[in-house]
Write a structure and sequence with these properties.
With about 425 residues, the chain is mainly α. The protein contains 15 helices and 2 strands. Strands 1-2 form a two-stranded antiparallel sheet. This is UDP-galactose transporter homolog 1. One of its GO terms (cellular component) is Golgi membrane. It is found in: Endoplasmic reticulum membrane.
Amino acid sequence: MGVLRLGVCISGVYAAFLLWAIAQERLSAPFPSASHHAHSSSSPKGDKFPSSLFLNYAQALASSLSAFIYLLFKAWRDGQLHRGIAEIVGLKQFFPIKKNSIGENRTKKENGHANGVIEGPGVVRTESKSKKGEKSTGMPWRKSLPVLLLQVSLFQTMASPIGFLALGHISYPTMVLGKSCKLIPVLLLNVFLYRRRFSPHKYVVVALVTVGISLFMLMAESKGKKKGGSDSAWGLCLLGINLFIDGLTNSTQDQIFSTYPSYTGQQMMFTMAFLTQLILLPALLLPLPAHPLVLLSHLPFPLSASSTLPTSHVSLAPPDFLTSISFLMSHPTALPPLLAYALLGGLGQLFIFETIQHFGSLTLVMVTVTRKLFTMLLSVVVFEHTLTKGQWLGVGVVFGGIGVEAGMKRREMLRRAKRDGK
């Protein structure tokens, strides 16, 4: 069942985000205006979608609706609709004291625990009286479920804009190379931040896949003869921050599932998408600076050196929400790719959170960073494209890493079957 589940998750991620990438590429292209009173500044080819924040909000909205529908369907199928919406979407787990206060005395009487109640693997809730007579769970507030989910939502919301900003100061091959190394910060932050332990072969697999993907991507760029341009120190710094935030996101998700094993991937997906909407909503409804980089010119050196615009007065633009709605009304052909972008992103997120819950963030990142490699290999078979020797070398290194992981998994399964047979 584990292999079948992993196969379904990988297929779902690949299929959903392959189509999602097509919709994203279409949204980045100009759309013709249907208005007879087009602005004089409009290009003959059309106008581009005015707000990336609106696109992120639309995808967050679709993700929360997808997770909500999935959770309701699963509860209906299992005959659990009587539990109520709050419990189905996981909101009741935000308040463990109220939820467990009745059952903990019964647990102590039945099991004879005088000082604590075991709540999950490695998590023990100790009971004590505070000065006001209230019970304490022994869980620091920083590790509570609402705080961890809010952290992940903030990380996820921040990562994309920083990545786009970094791309304005570094070359595309540098960005591709950085994203190819995403496994490393995920692994390191799991180890150093949350003290998670991995088998020795995991470090070998991460190294092989990272080297192989990096080699494959670099050879693809050199084959296409794309000039990278110069990379500024500020751009490299932003890329490092982007990778660090990605690592924080995935490692914190692992920590949530480890600390709260009854919390499901779809419940996390619903809550994170809902919190993301709350975070983005003020930015959509309030007027923002027309040129955000101008703000950097008002900061102390060296931050001011990152701004390519001269120091000037900060002018405010209309709210992104109004601008986007007006754009959709005057450019109706933008609506179908926007809906496809949001719905496919929501569908893909279902498979992503299922993968994180059951297989961990390292497996998920391995799936996402190898997606382009397998997509190009498919094009080699279907369209008879060719790969350079360097790309084939990268493919070999990646499959070497996957082979090590598969071999260790098989060995572990055989050892477990032998132990269970005894």
